C-alpha cells in the first residue's frame, strides 16, 4: 500500500470528527472530490473515492448530524491504473441542508449560488481549519513518496505531495489556509487542472502533523533518516572509488615512467634513493602511497615519497 493511502486510512480510522469539525471536514471533502448536480428536485451530491473505508466514516458522520445513512456503489466503469473507485451518495432529502451547513452553497434572495472557494464561516477556528485540510487531503491529495520498508528499498529520490483540482478558487484558498500554519505550497496549472504541491519533506511532515496523522509523521521521519544514511554511504563509496581511481592512474604513470627509464638509461644510472623508490613501486604497482610506506623500510613522509615518484616521471619525460 502506498504511503499516501496509508496516511489517509490513518486519518479516516483514528481521527474522529465532532459536531464542530464535521462540517469543515465534509466541506473540504466536497471541494476536493465531491460531485454536485442540480435538477428539478433540488441538488444531488456524491463523493468519488478509491478508499472504500471512507464510507463507514462518512456514514457515521451523516447519521450523527442528520440521522441519515449513505449509499455506496462500486464504479465499474471508473477504473484507472487498476484502481477501483467507489461513489458515496448522500441522502437526497438532506442534501440541501448538508450543502448549506458545509458552505458549498449559499441562499440569497431566494436563489442558491455555489461557493467555489472556502466559506470562512466554516473554518473559523484552528480546529475546524485542521478538519477542512483533512477532508481536502483525503479527497484529492496524491504523493510519490514510497517508504523503503514498503517497497523493498526501491524508493523515489525526492519527496512530492500535491492536491489536484479543477477548482482554482478552492486551491488558492487552501494555500492561504495552510500558510496560516507556516506550510507554504506552490500552485501551478497542469493541463485543465490546478496543482498545489510540496517538494520539501519537512513541509510534508508539518502537513501530516497538522492533520493528526502522527504515525505517518513518524514513518516519514524514519524514511528521511534511512535515505540520509543511504546517501551518506553512497557518498563515502563514491569518494573511496574516486580515490582508488586516482591511485591506480598515478601508479600506472609511475610504472610506465620507470619502465621507460629501464629501457633507456637503466635504473643503475639513478641515485640510490630513486632506485629504491622505483623498485618499491614496481614490486607493488597497485598500492597507495600510504601502503607503499608501510611495506618498505624507507624513512620518508608521504609527500617525500610522492616527490621522488614525480621526479621519476620527469626523468622519463626528458628521455622520451
Describe the structure.
This protein has 320 residues and is α+β, with helices and mostly antiparallel strands. Helices cover 55% and strands 18% of the residues. The chain has two domains: 3-212, Endonuclease I-creI, CATH 3.10.28.10; 244-319, no CATH class. It has helices at 3-14, 19-33, 54-66, 92-101, 126-140, 168-179, 201-211, 214-264, 272-283, 289-295, 302-319, and strands at residues 34-39, 42-49, 71-80, 83-89, 105-108, 111-114, 141-143, 161-165, 186-190, 193-198. The strands form three sheets. A four-stranded antiparallel sheet has the order 1-2-4-3. Strand 9 and strand 10 (193-198) form a beta hairpin. Helix 7 (201-211) packs antiparallel against helix 8, helix 8 (214-264) packs across helix 11 and helix 9 packs across helix 11 (302-319).
Write the topology of this structure.
Layout: H1 3-14, H2 19-33, E1 34-39, E2 42-49, H3 54-66, E3 71-80, E4 83-89, H4 92-101, E5 105-108, E6 111-114, H5 126-140, E7 141-143, E8 161-165, H6 168-179, E9 186-190, E10 193-198, H7 201-211, H8 214-264, H9 272-283, H10 289-295, H11 302-319
Antiparallel strand pairs: 1-2, 2-4, 3-4, 5-6, 7-8, 8-10, 9-10
Helix pairs in contact: 2-5, 7-8, 8-11, 9-11
